[in-house]
Specification:
Rossmann fold, 16 strands, 2 domains, alpha/beta, 6-stranded parallel beta sheet, about 45% helix
Amino acid sequence: MIVWLIRDLEPIPTDPGDRRLMRMGMLAQALARAGHSTRWITSSFDHYQKRQRSPRAQEIAPQPNLTITVLPGPGYRENISLARIRHNRVFAKAFAHFARTAPERPDVIVTDIPTTEAAAAAVAFGDAHGIPTVLSIRDLWPDFFADHMPSILRPVARLALYPLERQVRFACAKATSIVGISQGYHDWGLEKGGRMSSPNDRIFPLGYAPRTDIDSAAASAFLERIGVRDTSRVVAFIGSWGHTYDLPLVLEAVKRPILKDALFVIAGDGPQADVLRPQFSALPNVVAPGWIDAAEIAAILRRADVGLLPYRPDAPQGLPNKAFEYISAGTYQIATIKGELETFYNETDGGRALDRPDPDTFASAIASALSDPDIARRRPERVEQFERHYHADVIYGAFVAHIETIARALH
């Protein structure tokens, strides 16, 4: 079976720095391992490092049965910007040109929202040529743009976003299969497409592929080097220091006396780092190691008692990758948004979702989690929940079987 995956914005296996693969990357690897000729089409722009992978189109073959087609894209500096909208449009047009001129056509196409531009282009190509399409809903574009603006500006925002709304409605209406990362995302896709649920429509959570090749000696040496001791009660945040994260809230919470005996590992890099990292590093109960690789992330999460998901109230994240990454190590989570995350925590006993906490409330929740012996005792149960329901092998094995079913049904 020939499968095309249309997804920009994710790390690819050849990106530097031992990067973690995300949803489309894990699906691409699973399809290739299952013996399917898999082509992942992405852009030259590295969304996370804000760099160009290549000045021109290229093809990469990181493993048998997998080819990554890299199409030129202009990139952008800010995630929410006109430059990003332009990049999304350029990539969608580049895909459409590639699809029209490709020497062979796929048996099935899989694409994602985001972005609406690429999703609409992929579904349109499939619809025009009788190729089944699977549309995965992993972010609620473009709704969150308007939903998280001041109410007085929302009518204007929705008018400005109408082209994206038209794209998402077209993609959801015409796709052969709607796949949501949760029930809420699945239902959102059906509503956008004006369609009833059918056997073609499924739910596959994000999932995560934990590292299994951890060098224990290297992990211990890394933890010791950054200041994590055997007796430390560790609270971790690992992520890009983008503006969707309320890191100033974390900074103020860390200063509260109730947390003076905890050790905070605040890792990663991004736009807020230049201002906030010196302030974090000046505190006696914080280490801020900067950007770390996948093996070092795994070492921290296995050692952390609590993992933080400190999103701003207007952040677009609904059910982020970080929730699955943290639970893979059994790390108890404290988040600052509710919604889909609160449902996830209720189902897994994996954490606690707070509603717009101030620093004192946030600090109190962290201290409560650190002092609760039942949370520590149930760590193996959280790992078991992950292994049974959210491990990448489980999620993407089932996703591959679904794609095979969709392809067979229309051929």
